[in-house]
Amino acid sequence: MKRGKHSGNGGPTRRDILKMGASALGSVAVATQSSASQQRQKAERDDRPSFVIFMTDGQRADEMSIVGNRIIRTPHMDRIVREGIRFENAFVVNALCAPSRATVLTGMYSQRNGVVDNKYRPIASGLPIISDFLHEAGYEVAFCGKSHVKGALRDRYWDYYSVTSIRRITLLTELRRVLTGRSTPTVMEGTTSIEDTSTMS
Asked: Among residues 103, 98, 197, 196, which one has the least CA distance to residue 150?
């Protein structure tokens, strides 16, 4: 007598029941493994370091109190240094604002990334920047402040993005100077920023 899928009374055979049970157990095991894998990945993400990169304008390496500067007090920067990493032997090849920023972002020399001067040149198309790699690794990436490259990095992926325009910085700086009595306000026709005529050549 040939064995079929069903027993003689039309119900499932013992083998069918074992297969269904094994299949159900396999599904539970896969679901449990998947859940455990997700929890493990979340824990790994939580244990990963955070990256906050500050690019300041015209700040020398010794302009923080933590490195012995007796004039400048920088308690917040000092805390970041204590709890993070400070590169003590870092140099720039092209000591200008935009090229330095583009070099940090791309990890490439100015002649390779296309930003060779402060004339608002774009980073060469197709070059990944540090945030691209961090995003691919599952990090949330943000850009705040001044990029000094053409397009202000708007063509890149950001979870959070806030750029301060040069005009706004100029306005706030000049407003501060006017309020402290260090300059006379003159609103130039067709602009919204306050110009300091005492420093114009």
From this structure: 98
- What is the sign of the dihedral through the CA atoms of 11, 15, 18 and 20? negative
pLDDT in tens, 118-134: 988 899 888 999 999 99
From 73, 53, 51, select the one nearest 145 (Cα to Cα).
53
User: Cβ(143)–Cβ(158) under 8 Å?
Assistant: yes
Paired tokens of 90: 């870092």
Name 60's Cβ contacts closer than 8 Å, sequence gap at least 6: none
pLDDT at 15: 67
Q: pTM (2 decimals)?
A: 0.57
> Which active-site residues does the annotation give?
97, 148
